[in-house]
Amino acid sequence: MSKTYCTAPFVHMNIANDGNVTPCCTSTRSFGNSKRQSLSDIWSGDQMEQFREEILGGKQVEGCEICYQLEDSGADSFRLRWNRSFILKYIQDPKLRSDTPLCIHVHFSNICNLKCRMCWHGSSSSWFNDAKKLNLTVSDKALITSDGAQRMVDQLDPFIDKAVEFYFAGGEPLMMHQHYELLQRLIDRGRTDAIIGYNSNMTLLHLKDWDVIELWKQFKSVNVAISIDEVDERTPYLREGSDFETIRNNAMRIKREAPNVYIRVSPTITLLNIFNITNLLKRIVSEGICRYEDITLNIVQEPKYYNIRLLPLAHKKEIDRRVAAFIKAENLPALMIKWLKDVTSYMNAEDWSHRLGEFYEFNQKIDSIRSESFVDVFSNESYMLELFELASQQSEAVT
Ligand SMILES: C[S@@+](CC[C@H](N)C(=O)[O-])C[C@H]1O[C@@H](n2cnc3c(N)ncnc32)[C@H](O)[C@@H]1O
Ligand code: SF4
Q1: Does Disulfide bond appear among the keywords (predicted)?
Q2: Of 23, 24, 21, 40, nearest to 32 (Cα)?
Q3: Is 202 in the pocket of ligand 2 (CB under 6 A)?
Q4: Best exposed site among 94, 165, 174, 267 by fewest CB in 10 Å?
Q5: Is the CB of 300 under 6 A from ligand 1?
Q6: pTM for this one?
Q7: What is the rounded average pLDDT of the residues 180-197?
């Protein structure tokens, strides 16, 4: 197998909030849209077949740059994870596509109750009004949906019998009625053996009459990755509309009532939380939300103004120091150490500190729209205050 081979297009389909079908959630290649074509036609259609051929050609393919960049910096990539998860486990011949996708990632819409700083209107309906003020909307309506003339739940129906896994993100999947309808359909069709996966902000567990825990109890295997990026009063600054207490209480309710649900935590790493990363990890574990083994770190690459590569050298050194001290002091599993090393090696791979002014300008605009203050939120973190000062000077020098 070549060094660039990826199994995703042979086993998997990703349906974005707007109905765009891509090989995975990080690739920019598109094979069609669920609003205009059936998912079955897209799966066996020319565009997806051509992409598979390109992959088998053994060279890097257009649209998958994020994976190649992550690998170049020594970090793990989605491509590597796809290959580890599927080859030989569910398919014997990596060159042949399955009849219907085995793993389906579906983003029914961008409906979301939060407007996290590093997120955007395309993934969150709540971002719409702020995005309008910033000229960053991606449609003229807050809600973007993948439902077309044929409802997405019906489009997915032909895949139900063979699918190994359904994964839901968004938007916030636990706010999406289509997601509850699909779970009910899987239950009615006796497919409670299908693996159900999520990324969720974990701020709610109900929609209308549905209680997601009651549905989850009926499945053999449910994996929930909870997004937690900060603790206590910094939480709503990064993930506006959420609070740490609610997330923790909801996670605890799942643990009590649905032991078949496997909880992971997936912090999204930006310039706003990298300084507190070790405290964040400690709190997640000490609150009993999950173990170190069950934490995965998600590095923000775009938008660039929140990318950790923007940090000046002295700040990066301090982060390296904090991470090294944490690794030395805690009895961490090898996987957690690897995640931390991946993050620091990604951070140190390139120096983008000349772009710090961009961070300042964007963050100030958001602060002003939301009547929030970076300096107040990070008043007890001298490195963050110094960073703010440097970024502000750089922005002034440019303007
Ligand atoms: C878009 S959200 C959708 C699911 C759910 N609303 C949540 O927050 O978990 C999926 C994941 O992407 C992360 N995310 C948000 N903005 C990102 C960005 N710019 N780059 C990388 N990941 C991002 C979120 O923190 C979350 O863990
Ligand atoms: S909760 Fe998820 S989808 Fe909603 S704004 Fe935050 S990261 Fe984006």
Answers
A1: no
A2: 21
A3: no
A4: 94
A5: yes
A6: 0.93
A7: 97
Cα 142 from Cα 339, distance rounded (Å): 35
Residue 302 beta carbon below 6 angstroms from any ligand 1 atom: yes
Distances (CA, A) of 8 to 78, 198, 387: 9, 18, 39
Domain boundaries, the chain: 8-104, 105-397
Q: Please check whether the domain covering 105-397 is classified as CATH 3.30.200.
A: no
Residue 118 beta carbon below 6 angstroms from any ligand 1 atom: yes
Q: Give the mean model confidence (pLDDT) for residues 354-377.
A: 97
Residue 229 φ/ψ, nearest 5 degrees: -110, -20
**CB–CB of 298/269 below 8 Å?**
yes
Q: Which amino acid is at 235?
A: T
Higher pLDDT, 72 or 282: 282
Closest ligand relative to 127 C-alpha: 2
**Listed residue (244, 258, 248) closest to 212, CA to CA:** 258
